[in-house]
Design brief:
5-stranded mixed sheet; 641 residues; alpha+beta; extended
């Protein structure tokens, strides 16, 4: 990985700004045409240099290599020795890109033979040669050429020494000599900091963060993170970076917590508020993951102290997390309050989105109106000019010919105007249709959003009510009702989040549904394992609602009744297409099922399954094979448009 980063760095450093602005997908024939149109061989080589760069930057290394070879033949034939230096350097770069490192070094050696004719390229040649030896891990040769490059740049281009220092530090990183790697990075840092170029100094800051991350020095990690943020902002950018310690998959949860605590303290000490709040938020997530709910709650409340009056998605998420935490801690009153705050924040964000949309539509309408006025004035001016020309023409030709021409012109003008008017009316109608469709899309998403919110409120009310019910039968009915409501809420949630508001993707929906049911019945992974075989199918909402409710009932029955004798086992859920039929099955390794008793049950759940099976034209197959197996073969279903 470090070798690839090194190659990318040196490639970027050889970019010519003027040519970079013109980089596009180019063809070899364009390069050859440009070369052949040059007035002499010297101009041909200059053309080759430009087109070679374009081809190289677009990944066309084969064509770039062919073009450089043509240039070398021309230069050798005409004894253009000063051009051979750059041509052989470019040939080396192409070979290096192709992974032919030893061949690249041979090309650089040939370039050195002509260096006396163009010594301005000495630094570049030493730089590329040293890099090739670095890729081969021949450290002695790398040091030799990097030292030559530093000596040359010291006299001619002192600023560019940072490139060698940055490349050199990679070798020490590869050998885990972080002190030495840091020494070379700080040399580069001292060079790039005064100019503060975003690409140059930003890269060095990124490397410093990585080193301090490796050695666990969170104080300096926070310091250089803050400096990188300030650099990007001062140069007019909007940094998209992690304001906190990048999580290492090799660390335990407790180790991650300690690192985040240290890093949050460092950010707070240097007054880096954005990074501090981001890190505290991540710390809350970690506490939540390890089930330390009190500390998770304290972390999120700390963030709210700073952002209590802020309207954004982060605050909305924190309200949602505090709702979940308080529910688990049994603080139902607080849970309800945070649920209301989360809903209010969602509505505020939605209203803000709608205001932005209306502003955009209004601005677009005003722009189109002005364009129409300009077009109308232009058309009127064109008509005036045409009438003047017609008058002049009438005075210069015979009366009979004039009448004929006027008749012809009138017909043409009428046709032109009619076609133009028809086209204009069609464009106006299309815009109205597009506007209406956009408004319809917004309204449908709003409807799904509000339906989902209402269903969630119903589910929350049922959940809160269940805490005050002592009768087991009533509590069971309340919980089953809550699961059915959640099944439908998931559908509306997916609808307003997806680009397609008429269809639901099955993999995501059923995964969320099953996970919710396992949580609802407090099923742990070591008790009942779950196997999901779900094909990715986009179903119409009219199919997904009854299908989701049937799946909810069958899975709930398996979890409630299939494992009464033993808490361990496996539940397998399958959804797939077979020819023109949709197959859904629920299989468990529990105690099995009495087919007659199940089919003749008068429970509300069974009645609902029967009603929805009729709607879907479904056939149910029940079997006992090391547990219960219920399969539905569905004939009437609709895929999303």
């Amino acid at each position: 990985m470090k070798l690839r980063l090194t190659i990318t760095l040196f490639t970027l450093l050889s970019i010519i700004p003027l040519v970079w602005s013109q980089v596009s997908m180019v063809e070899m024939k364009d390069a050859l045409n440009s070369m052949n149109s040059a007035p002499n061989n010297l101009a041909k080589i200059d053309s080759i240099a430009v087109w070679n760069f374009k081809l190289f930057m677009n990944g066309r290394t084969k064509e770039a290599g062919e073009l450089v070879s043509i240039g070398i033949n021309i230069a050798e034939k005409d004894r253009l020795l000063d051009k051979l230096t750059i041509l052989y350097i470019e040939q080396g770069r192409v070979l290096e890109r192709e992974g032919k490192i030893k061949n690249a070094i041979e090309a650089y050696n040939k370039a050195s033979q002509y260096l006396s004719y163009n010594d301005k390229l000495a630094g570049k040649l030493y730089l590329h040669t040293g890099r090739s030896f670095q890729l081969l891990k021949e450290v002695d040769s790398m040091v030799l050429y990097y030292t030559k490059a530093i000596d040359w740049f010291e006299i001619n281009e002192p600023y560019r020494k940072w490139i060698i220092y940055e490349a050199w530090h990679n070798t020490y990183v590869d050998h885990s000599d972080f002190d030495k790697a840091m020494e070379y990075l700080m040399k580069a840092y001292d060079i790039t900091k005064p100019k503060g170029k975003r690409m140059d100094h930003g890269l060095i800051l990124y490397r410093l963060r990585a080193i301090y991350d490796r050695v666990g020095d969170m104080t300096n990690y926070a310091k250089y993170t803050k400096e990188y943020h300030d650099l990007v902002v001062s140069s007019g950018g909007s940094p998209n970076m992690i304001h906190g310690y990048e999580q290492d998959s090799t660390l335990t949860s407790k180790e991650k917590v300690e690192k985040f605590k240290t890093l949050a303290s460092e950010y707070k000490n240097i007054g880096y508020e954005d990074a501090y709040l981001n890190t505290i938020t991540k710390l809350g997530d970690l506490y939540y993951d390890i089930n330390d709910l009190s500390k998770a709650k304290a972390s999120f409340l700390t963030v709210l102290k700073y952002k209590s009056k802020t309207i954004d998605k982060v605050v909305e998420d924190i309200y949602g997390k505090l709702h979940e935490i308080n529910s688990k801690l049994g603080n139902y009153k607080e849970a309800y309050q945070y649920a209301i705050l989360e809903k209010t924040m969602k509505d505020s964000l939605l209203n803000e989105d709608k205001r932005n949309l209306l502003f955009s539509l209004e601005k677009k309408y005003e722009t189109e109106k002005k364009e129409q006025q300009v077009a109308l004035l232009t058309a009127e001016n064109d008509v005036k000019d045409l009438r003047i020309k017609e008058g002049n023409y009438q005075r210069n030709i015979f009366f009979s010919i004039t009448l004929g021409l006027l008749g012809l012109l009138s017909i043409l003008y009428y046709s032109f105007r009619k076609n133009k008017e028809s086209k204009r009316l069609l464009e106006v109608q299309n815009k109205i249709i597009e506007k209406n469709l956009a408004e319809k899309d917004v309204l449908l998403r709003e409807i799904h959003h509000r339906v989902k919110n209402n269903l969630q409120v119903v589910s929350s009310l049922l959940s809160l009510q269940s805490n005050y019910i002592s009768d087991d039968a009533a509590l069971k009915a309340i919980n089953e009702g809550k699961d059915r409501v959640s099944s439908m809420a998931l559908i509306h949630q997916n609808l307003y989040k997806e680009n397609d508001i008429t269809g639901i993707e099955t993999t995501f929906y059923f995964t969320e549904l099953i996970d919710h049911l396992f949580d609802s019945y407090n099923i742990r992974e070591n008790e009942i394992s779950l196997v999901k075989n779900i094909e990715s199918i986009k179903l119409d909402v009219d199919t997904m609602i009854p299908l989701g409710l049937i799946a909810n009932e069958l899975i709930s029955n398996a979890l409630k009744h299939g494992f009464t004798q033993s808490l361990t086992g496996t539940l397998t859920f399958t959804l797939k297409m077979r020819d023109d039929q949709l197959i859904m099955s629920v299989k468990d390794t529990g105690k099995g099922i009495n087919e007659e008793e199940f089919l003749n049950s008068k429970s509300f759940g069974n009645k609902m399954i029967t009603a929805f099976m009729q709607k879907l034209g479904a056939k149910m197959i029940i079997s006992n094979d090391q547990g219960a197996h219920i399969e539905l073969v569905i004939n009437k279903f609709k895929l999303a448009a």
